[in-house]
Amino acid sequence: MDPAALADCLKTTSCVVTQFTSGLIIGMLLFLVAAGLTLIFGVLKVVNFTHGSFYMLGAYLALSVYKISDSFTLAVVCAGAGVALFGLVFERLFMSRVYGSNVLMQLLVCYAFILILDDAVKFIWGAEFKSMGMPPAFQRPPILLAGGVIPAFYLFLIVIALAIGAVLWLVITRTRVGKIVRAAAHNPTMTSALGINTGLIYGTVFAAGGLLAGLAGGLAAPVRSMAPGMGVSILIESFIVTVIGGMGSIGGALAGSLLIGLIRSFGSIGFPLFTEGIMFLFMAMVLVIKPSGLFGKDI
Amino acid sequence: MKRRGFAFDLGIATAALVVLAILPVLFPSKALVDFAIRVAAFGIFASSLNILVGYTGLVSFGHGMFFGAGAYTFGLLMQNTGTSIPAAFLLTLLLSAALAAVVGAICVRLKEIYFAFITLAFQMLLHSLIISWQQLTGGDQGLMGGIPRPPFLGIDLADQSHLYLFACATLIVSLLIMRHLMQSPFGYTLRMIRDNAERAQFIGIRIWRMRLAAFILAGIFASVGGIIMSLLVSGAYPEFGYWTISGEAIFMLMLGGTSAFLGPTVGTMMLLLLNDVITRFTEYYGLTLGVVILLFALVFRKGVADFAVEAWRRRFGENQA
After folding, report:
1. Pick from A68, A231, A263, B264: most CB atoms within 10 A?
2. How distant, in Å, are the alpha carbons of A26, A47, A112, A227 from that of A105?
């Protein structure tokens, strides 16, 4: 506990700017993962606890593609596409079998896959920490703003994550596919009675969630070290985000992610050991006051 | 068919205790004793979770909170106050009940998945507290220096064979109390709330009060499991309060089954055995365990004890649960 350090930081603009941007990138990466989680819950009413492992898979896929091709763009695209495909297969072959049964069964299937994927990663890539290194395109001096340091890659990350979020929002609210997805979320029986293949919709939504998590993993690869089990902490955080923002609300996921990102970056100065505690305290408070989350529809 | 009463359960419990007491005489093995103590700790813990999951229909993701709280409270009491083991034991149960009452009063008002979320949140809150309150808990190192185990009534828990008997007796007595409560009108009220909460409300049952009672009861017994564990390892570690402990307990329930009273204990034995066997033969522990979990979740769809109970009923035509 060191609240004095936090107070010192808040007094200087350079520290505030540095911490704020690092909070923003934590938040934006979290947003990509949490958006997929909340989308899947919104449509399927299933909490995909393997979502953190999707993110991990994305990061490792990006690492391998980058090593072979030397292209960061290709690495991120392949990470997204690969995990999307995995999400589709996972939903069609496994999750779709436990929709009718209770939450425990869904939880167990996810838990099994968390264990299996961690070991699969250990088997393929090894148990030791891996890092990708910064792609040459971003190896340039950081931008100085009011005395604070902002690496070029951070700016890129924030912009690209916002762009992905905007595309997601447009697809859901403005396109025919989005309309069908919203209809399936609202009333699956009626939607399927209208001749729409809801199984396909569910698979697509899982693939979209996988795409987002895979992209996040790929984008995070240059700034995060990788190890089997890295999915757990991002799963827990994106889970907090979706509960705070409201399960099923993409806007809520954005707000929640930024909030958690800032708590993480400023909290690491003031109370490094209790930042997780603060997040859970916040989550418990939201659940008590408004269980459906800050931006969720009332249940 | 006539219902068997408390006397029957008591008979089985006594017989089980005698068998357990003879066991180490027949097979003198330190590994077996160690295994049995762990089964006792987690068996009580998993059975207590089943009060919530199986009987009341409340899926808690944060039950490990009371396991951790029990281990830490007991450890801290023994290290700092120099009380006797029975006094610290009882005081731990009281404090756990108080914790469960406060947390439960907030949690049981929430429905289904939100109940699961908020219990998880409280558990992780406690875990963060344990990690960050280093002066008291030793942070991520756990309670260091060992827990003093002064002898009482001629029982010396520092002696592994005494600890074994103590753990077995605690397991049997805890199971007997839980069994008796679940077969009482209170237990059947909980089942009714699980099956149809609205209807229970119609006949005048205060649902949240009953759920809270179940929550406190489950919390108390979970802390008993924690105490046994802290006695075994002579310490307490933050992992005892981490969400994975709750996850393991849920898996124990699914392995053994939630409908038979002894299901969770059977599941505990299976999971701990599975752990030992898998870690001996392969370093890909998660892969193997994951496949086993998938098998249970997708193929069997119920626990081992559920199958046994069904087979029993088919054979003897019993239709009472």
Report:
1. B264
2. 32, 11, 11, 28
In chain A, where the domains are located? 3-289
Which residue in B110, B124, B290 is closest to A291 by CB distance? B110
What is the DSSP track for A167-222?
A: HHHHHHHHSHHHHHHHHHHH-HHHHHHTT--HHHHHHHHHHHHHHHHHHHHHHHTT
Residue B151 lies in a domain: yes
Q: Is the ipTM of this complex over 0.85?
A: no
Q: What is the pLDDT of residues A247-263, one digit of tens each?
A: 888 888 999 999 999 98
Residue B280 lies in a domain: no
B114, B287, B289: residue with CB nearest A287: B114
What count of other Cβ atoms lies within 10 Å of the Cβ of residue A107?
22
* Interface contact A284-B118, CB threshold 8 A: yes
d(CA B60, CA B67): 13
Mean pLDDT of chain A: 86
Model confidence at A297, pLDDT cuts 50, 70, 90, reads low
Residue linked to tokens 């309309």: A179
Q: Is the model's pLDDT at A228 over the cut of 90?
A: no
The whole domain housing B179 covers: 30-242
| H or E element, residue B205 | none
Q: Name the domain count of chain B.
A: 1
Note whether B294 contacts A112, CB cutoff 8 Å.
yes
In chain B, residues with a C-beta closer than 8 Å to the C-beta of A283 are 117-118, 121
Amino acid A169 reads W
pLDDT of residue B236: 83
Q: Which fold has domain A3-289?
A: ABC transporter involved in vitamin B12 uptake, BtuC (1.10.3470)
Q: Which residues pair with B155 in a beta bridge?
A: B152
Q: How confident is the model at residue A58, as a pLDDT?
A: 94
To the nearest whole Å, the CA of B150 is away from the closest chain A CA by 34
Give the model confidence (pLDDT) of B62-101 as tens digits: 899 999 999 999 988 888 887 888 888 999 999 999 999 9
Residues of B in contact with A120 (CB under 8 A): 287
Average predicted confidence (pLDDT) for chain B: 84
Name the token pair of A50: 């393997």
A50, A110 Cβ separation under 8 angstroms: yes
* Preferred mutation among A91, A243, A247, A273 to probe B, highest tally of B CBs within 10 A: A273
